[in-house]
Amino acid sequence: MASAPSTSAPGAEAPVTGGGDQPLPTMTRAAVASSERVLIIIANKVYDVTDYAEDHPGGEDVMLEHQGADATTEFQDVGHSRAAQQELARYLVAKLEAGDCA
User: Are 56 and 62 in contact (CB under 8 A)?
Assistant: First the structure.
């Protein structure tokens, strides 16, 4: 099981977390797309799934296919369980800037 993300700048080697009651940082779609980390967008929120990708039940390739992109439709179409949605929440690192929201 992967450890909780640490705090650092978006796109840096370590993922960013909102940390408790602190507001989440914002990222642009361009920043998400250019990150070396495996970042995905679901419902205008950015998730760093780098440490989870190889453990994903559907396979790492599914995660890498959506690296740097919006995977909202695909995530919803699969019909992920409540447990999967709760697991995803652990990897929330940012929200999209208002101008980049779908």
Answer: yes
Q: pLDDT tens digits for 62-101?
A: 888 889 999 998 888 877 788 888 888 899 999 998 888 8
Q: What residue ranges define each of the domains in the chain, with the CATH number in brackets? A: 26-100 (3.10.120.10)
Half-sphere exposure for 98 (CA within 13 Å, toward CB): 0
Q: What is the pTM of this model?
A: 0.74
Quick check: 60 and 49 in contact, CB under 8 A?
no
Whole-angstrom distance, CA of residue 5 vs CA of residue 16: 7
| Contact assessment for residue 92 and residue 42, using Cβ atoms and an 8 Å cutoff | no
What 8-state DSSP symbol labels residue 22? S
Q: Which two tokens stand for residue 58?
A: 């559907």
DSSP summary character for residue 77: H
Instruction: Look at residues 67, 80, 55 and name the one whose alpha carbon lies nearest to residue 2.
Output: 55
